[in-house]
């Protein structure tokens, strides 16, 4: 095991559905990863993986560190011979000095003394666990085949050995309610992972969830519901110093053309979440400071300007209409935190949960 870093340049190798002992109700893995059709082999050839690594390394000339990652399946569920062959392939690049570590995603119930003994021989930095939920009823209805206790046990074993950990969380699975979402979120954050990924559940063609949806037995979250829950998760995680690695599924050509039947999918989902957060802060300032006919100026960190404006400037238009403002100006200000918004001599920060008067210079 070697120490990982959240800033690594990641070379992704997709092993769609390989090693998975269960067919989860939400899963049609080839649509998620964009790797071929349902009849294609689950594992790419090793020569194909080498070609993919070389292709990505060509883009990583000045990036450091670089890590090879196995995504899209249950890595520790692979047959031992295949598992060690994959690790040997990646290890060769580490020994050459062109790559600095290995990471992968797997199910919690595949973290065992046997698989951990194998990992100990390799420079693995980071393990992602597909927890998805910490509510056993939700896991059962989603045919996950593992429990919340399995996730807790796996996390304890991985952290005891010094691995960085990332937990994957799905929103809107069968049986999830607002209360169960919050319980699940708090249990995930209590495990203190280094990062989390937040995936709103989409109804994928060819999945068990698609059959339930067609029969009217499953209703996905609306886009707004998914954004609001993701915003809550992002804020709770960030306040605890836990990185949110991603919000929303990675876009692929298959998903755009035929993969998604229903659900809160959006190609810029993470942007929608951050825009909702800045909209809340702008509303706080407007409610306390603005009067009809005002022309306020918002100041925001340059990297957060588009988040404040919202999708197609929707937040600015909504504020102007609701508070009857004559005009709104947005000024970049790199002295502000990326999570803060200032106007009229006041600063609000949703992460710090503060509303304070600006200090005079």
Automatic annotation (TrEMBL):
Domain Radical SAM core: 3-236
Residues annotated as transmembrane: none
Superkingdom, natural source: Bacteria
GO terms for cellular component: cytoplasm
Cofactor(s) needed: [4Fe-4S] cluster
Keywords of the record: 4Fe-4S, Iron, Iron-sulfur, Metal-binding, S-adenosyl-L-methionine
Any one GO BP annotation for this protein: tRNA wobble base 5-methoxycarbonylmethyl-2-thiouridinylation
Pfam families: Radical_SAM (PF04055), Radical_SAM_C (PF16199)
Gene Ontology molecular function: any one: 4 iron, 4 sulfur cluster binding
InterPro entries: ELP3 (IPR039661), Elp3/MiaA/NifB-like_rSAM (IPR006638), Radical_SAM_C (IPR032432), rSAM (IPR007197), rSAM_horseshoe (IPR023404), rSAM_sf (IPR058240)
Matching SUPFAM superfamilies: Radical SAM enzymes
Name of this chain's protein: Radical SAM superfamily protein
């Amino acid at each position: 095991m070697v120490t990982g870093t959240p800033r690594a340049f990641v070379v992704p190798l997709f092993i769609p559905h390989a090693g998975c002992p269960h067919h989860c109700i939400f899963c049609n893995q080839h649509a998620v990863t964009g790797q071929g059709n349902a009849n294609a082999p689950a594992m790419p050839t090793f020569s194909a993986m080498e070609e993919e690594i070389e292709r990505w390394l060509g883009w990583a000339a000045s990036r450091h560190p670089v890590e090879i990652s196995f995504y899209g399946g249950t890595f520790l569920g692979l047959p031992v011979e295949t598992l060690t062959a994959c690790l040997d392939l990646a290890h060769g690049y580490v020994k050459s000095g062109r790559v600095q570590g290995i990471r992968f995603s797997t199910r919690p119930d595949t973290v065992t003394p046997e698989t951990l003994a194998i990992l100990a021989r390799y420079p693995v930095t980071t393990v992602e666990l597909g927890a998805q939920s910490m509510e056993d009823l939700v896991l059962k209805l989603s045919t996950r085949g593992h429990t919340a206790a399995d996730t807790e046990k796996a996390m304890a074993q991985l952290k005891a050995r010094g691995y960085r950990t990332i937990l994957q969380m799905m929103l809107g699975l069968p049986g999830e309610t607002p209360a169960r979402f919050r319980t699940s979120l708090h249990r995930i954050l209590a495990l203190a992972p280094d990062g989390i990924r937040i995936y709103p559940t989409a109804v994928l063609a060819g999945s068990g969830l698609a059959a339930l949806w067609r029969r009217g037995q499953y209703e996905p979250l609306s886009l707004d519901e998914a954004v609001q829950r993701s915003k809550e998760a992002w804020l709770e995680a960030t306040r605890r110093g836990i990185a949110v690695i991603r919000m929303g599924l990675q876009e692929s050509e298959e998903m755009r053309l035929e993969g998604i039947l229903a659900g809160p999918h959006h190609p810029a989902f993470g942007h929608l979440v951050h825009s909702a957060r800045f909209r809340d802060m702008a509303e706080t300032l407007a409610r306390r400071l603005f009067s009809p006919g005002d022309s306020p100026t918002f100041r925001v960190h340059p990297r957060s300007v588009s988040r404040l404006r919202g999708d197609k400037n929707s937040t600015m238009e909504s504020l102007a209409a609701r508070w009857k403002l004559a005009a709104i100006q947005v000024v970049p200000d790199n002295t502000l935190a990326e999570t803060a918004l200032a106007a009229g001599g006041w600063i609000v920060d949703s992460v710090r949960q503060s509303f304070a008067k600006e200090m005079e210079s």
